[in-house]
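Researcher: I'm preparing a figure for a lab meeting and need a structural model of a single chain. I don't have an experimental structure, so a prediction will have to do for now. The sequence is pasted below. Please return the structure as tokens so I can convert it later.
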Amino acid sequence: MLGWRPFFQAQIDADADVRPARVLNVQRDRVDVAGEDCHEAVELSPKAAAMQITVGDWVLIDAGKRIVRRLDRFGAFRRRAAGAGADVQMIAANVDTLFIVTSANRDFNIARLERYLAIAHDAGAFPIIVITKADTVESTDAFVAAAAKLAPGVLVEALNALDPKAVDVLRPWCESGQTVALLGSSGVGKSTLTNTLTGEHLETQAAREDDQRGRHTTTSRSMHRLPHGGWLIDTPGMRELRLVDVGDAIDDVFAEVAALASACRFSDCSHASEPGCAVQAAIAEGHLDAERLRRYRKLQSEDRRNSETIAERRSRDKSLGKMYKSILSGKRREQGEAS
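Model: Understood. Here is the structure written out token by token.
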């Protein structure tokens, strides 16, 4: 019922005096877990905190109700933490399907959807783009068509999150043993969708009249039981979702660009002005949108930058500083000789 599978069972010593439990919620000093015939709060010791436990993880608990181990994940959502450090923040783990939630209004943003798709591919989760607030527009066809072009085979559903019959289209991914997660920016209707899927009544707020965008009320990640036996992980709206170490996933999302890049004359082609660039040739022939390439390069650059360790970043910045000083010194010498 909780998503237990042979992948996790294979990690447990049959003779060990421990029991597995799944993490439903993480607080500062404790975690809420559920297992076979139990639902309890367990202290988050310094040792357990060092395991970087997140919602959706499976942990082993001993007879003293202590977390002794976090089981390996089959996938996880993560992002670069805010600030100048190199920390990675875990969002959720062991998710089968990701509902990428946007809405049929000004929140609909192609670049943001591509970012979420990259995170889904990296976590090994099946992505479905869910366009909410379908009842607020005459037609969602343009939104659906734009979203469907973003990655090979991506599924797109437009619906009214308040309507249980409309939301039924998502039920096949909410069956027993399945874990789904919601990701999306603030105010797109994630809490409303969660309410409809779970039958619970999480607090939501009305949309602002000026832009039809709601104010999010989810403040922490948590798991909710679904009526058909699955589990749903709701997450707060994220103002910033910085990619980290998802280079292969970006290529999966931008599969047509990556395929063209492999045909470039130079293996290190930047797809800017090099001769024999298959990507630029496709743009010139009208087979590839230049904006699509721009977004691809932007995400690649961000991923490389965010994937650096602090030491690597300092080394790179130091090298760049030396190069700039050398260039500046050369210019000054040239000016001195000219005078």
